[in-house]
Amino acid sequence: MSIEKMEAAELLSKNKFNVDEEIAHIEIDKTICAQCREKPCLYVCPVVLYKLDKNGDISFDYAGCLECGTCRVVCHDIGSKGIVKWVYPRGTFGVNFRYG
Ligand code: SF4
Ligand code: SF4
Questions:
Q1: Ligand 1 centroid to 55 CA: how many Å?
Q2: Which of 14, 29, 69, 85 has a Cα-to-Cα distance from 93 of 20 to 30 A?
Q3: Can you list the domains of the chain with their CATH numbers?
C-alpha cells in the first residue's frame, strides 16, 4: 500500500460542504465586533472566514467552516464575545472531511 503525501491546501480542497442556507451555525454581532480591539478571529481561522471589509468592519461567512471551534475560543477568551452563536450545523449539513 502506498501513502500519497499532500499539502494542507490540497487536503482541504478535497472537503465537501453541504451549507445550510437557512440556519447559520455561527453568528456574530457586528456592533460588539466594532468594539473589539484585538480581533483575534482574523488570525486563527484556518480557512480565513473572518475578514475586514473596506470600512474596517468584520465580515464573516460561515460557508466553508471546518467546525474547529477556534474562533469561538479566542473570541470569548481574548476578544469581545461578538460570536453570539456557535453550534454545530444541523444533521447532514456542514463539512464532510475526505482525508481526516
Ligand atoms: S469554527 Fe474554525 S473554521 Fe469555522 S469559522 Fe471558526 S475558526 Fe474558522
Ligand atoms: S474576536 Fe469576536 S468580538 Fe472580536 S472581532 Fe472577532 S468575532 Fe468580533
A1: 23
A2: 29
A3: 24-96 (3.30.70)
Q: Which atom of ligand 1 is nearest to the CA of 44?
A: 7
Pocket test for ligand 2, best of 80, 81, 85 (most atoms within 8 A of CB): 80
- Tracing cell 449539513 back to the chain, one arrives at 93
pLDDT in tens, 50-85: 999 999 999 999 999 999 999 999 999 999 999 999
Q: Has residue 16 got a pLDDT over 70?
A: yes
For the whole model, what pTM was predicted?
0.90
Greatest CA span in the chain, whole angstroms? 54
